Every structure is written in C-alpha cells, then in structure tokens.
Amino acid sequence: MAIIAEDFEFVVGVDTHARTHTFTTVHASTGAVVDTAAFPATSSGMDRAITWIRRRTGGQRVFAAVEGTSSYGGRLTQALLAAGIDVGEVRPPSRSSRALTGKSDPIDAEAAARSVLGRPRDQVTEPRAAGTRAAIRILLASRSLLDHQRTANRNALTALCWRP
After folding, report:
1. Of 38, 60, 2, which Cα lies nearest the Cα of 110?
2. Which of 10, 28, 134, 151 could bridge to 5 as Cys pair (CB 3.0-4.6 Å)?
3. Binning pLDDT at 50, 70 and 90, where does residue 72 land?
C-alpha cells in the first residue's frame, strides 16, 4: 500500500480554532514547508484558504490533514471536500511531544501535515459523516437535557412538599 507522500504532491496541515484556522503546506516528497497562513473561520475565509492552497500547490494532488473535523474544522472539512481536496482527520500533538518545540498555531499545523506523510491512506482517519451520526448525537444530547430537567423539577417539588 502506498503512503500519503507517494500518492499526493502536497500535504496541507490545518490547526483549527473557533475564530481562525492556520494552514501549512508541506511538499510531500521533500518535506519542505512551502508556506504558512491563517484565515478566519468564516465562509469567505475558507474560500480564501482554498484559493491560497490552489496557488501554493499549482493544482496538483493535495491531501489536507485537519485537526477537529467534527468540531471547529467541520465546516472547513465540508468546504475542502467540495473543492475536491482529500481530507483526513489528525489528533493534536500530545503535550509531551510539544515540550521541546513549544506551542503555536503554525507549529501545530506543520505537525498535522507531517503526521500523515509516512502513513498509508487507509490508516488515516476519514472525517465522520455528518448526517445520521450528527442527528443521533443531537437526539441523545436532548434526551440527557430532558432527564436533567425532570430530575431538577422533581427535586424542587419534593423540597416544597417536605416539612421537618
């Protein structure tokens, strides 16, 4: 099985946050950092980021290694997939691995890109489907909230009725 560095010319690592996403483009065969940039986590910011990726990679095959494809990077993941860019989910680096290099968004984005270079494509986690899975997650969260409210109401009624 071929590894990501053999299947793609470039890997883009993305460190996602609520307000901005930081992108680092790495040349897959050499491991050289091509460029790093941050864009707002808005629709127009994501469009600018995709244009930035296309300019830096010359339209060649690109793989995006995104942190948090189900949370902060959910909308970005959908935009990348719609633009024809393959996406894989990566975990943020552990605290112990960052002890010597420090913590910054460009460092985390580069680490995300490098974490997939030597891995086979089938061993990189694919982004979770948003359809049925998200609907079930919302239903379970709603049920939990209703259970908590019911318990709180029951406790309040018991406190009103109880006399020492």
Report:
1. 38
2. 28
3. confident
Confidence of residue 33 (pLDDT cuts 50, 70, 90): very high
The model's pTM is 0.74
Inter-residue contact 31 to 114 (CB < 8 Å): yes
What fold characterizes domain 4-128? Nucleotidyltransferase; domain 5 (3.30.420)
Q: Where are the domains of the chain?
A: 4-128, 129-164
Burial level of 90, CB count in 10 A (0-12/13-18/19+)?
Answer: buried
Whole-angstrom distance, CA of residue 124 vs CA of residue 26: 17
End-to-end CA distance of the chain: 73
Q: Which two tokens stand for residue 162?
A: 């109880």
CA distance 15 to 142: 30
Render pLDDT for 85-100 as a digit per residue (tens, 0 to 9). 999 998 876 655 555 5
Average per-residue pLDDT in the chain?
87
**Cα–chain-centroid distance for residue 162?**
51
Rounded (10°) CA dihedral 71, 76, 81, 82: 130
